[in-house]
Amino acid sequence: MPAKKRGLATPASSKTPAAASATASQSSAPNGASPEPPAQKRRRSARVQQKQDLENPIQQSKAGAPPSRAVSSSSKTPSTSRSADPKPATHPKASKKQAKEAVTATEATTTTTTTAVEQAAHPSPVTGATAQTDVHVQLPVPSLGDSASTSDSPPSSGFTPSYWLLKAEPESRIEKGKDVKFSIDDLAACKEPAGWDGVRNYAARNNLRAMKAGDLAFFYHSNCKEPGIAGIMEIAEGASIDETAFNPKEPYFDPKSDRSNPKWYLVKVRFVRKFTRLVSLHELKSHGGPGGKLANMALIKMSRLSVSPVGRAEWDFILDLERKSQ
Prior knowledge:
This protein is α+β, with helices and mostly antiparallel strands.
């Protein structure tokens, strides 16, 4: 019989692709079973491929798609943020464009979470209107005048006063129709600091110009029956021009005084307290001999000087004299 009719002499290369596929299907089918239709075979292959994709997330990631939600939840690596959303699941049949968009969204979420964590760990300095500024607050320092009425010593505020002695006439004396009387009681009656004017001696003027607010001074009664220290006053204001020197009607007018080049000054004083007793000049001189506590006091050495300095030791000693009964 010719080879063509027997079907054995036809070479394998002469078969068509469809015939070769059918032959392969017949050879792979089990004995006694009919060959599987091509459409069913394709569906079965798709299901197998889908199962492999789900079971192998590494291959799926290489293909361009992130692992599914089920794979992320079963991963052993903990999440870096509790608020971070899990990675979105991607269907195995999703296009490469959709898979790329899903990966980009996941990376953006991770970057945002990381930035928030870094800012919480290293906060930026506050600037602008909300910045905290050091506010340095200056506390008021009590002036000597506030405490002078209760103490003859300076307060512990860092201020070191100087001490002085100023003379005034407590008994009436008329000059140019005006009474020049001024006593410790007259100062106590003043509601405001009084100007200590009428000083026309250069040495006394220089002492006035050296005074500063807060200094203390003895009020000395002079040119009277019993001269002596009658009380304490405070320098309320430092030296300023004595305007009475330019007024012809004033008792201590100086015709040679020039307003453009003034030479006489005054200070303003405030009442502190009156002594419980007058410390007389006679008593002061009794301690002014050689080796005495007041041996160098300007009042004793320059008795005609109306404004003179007082040393701190001399000041304290005179306060002790006042407390002693006579």
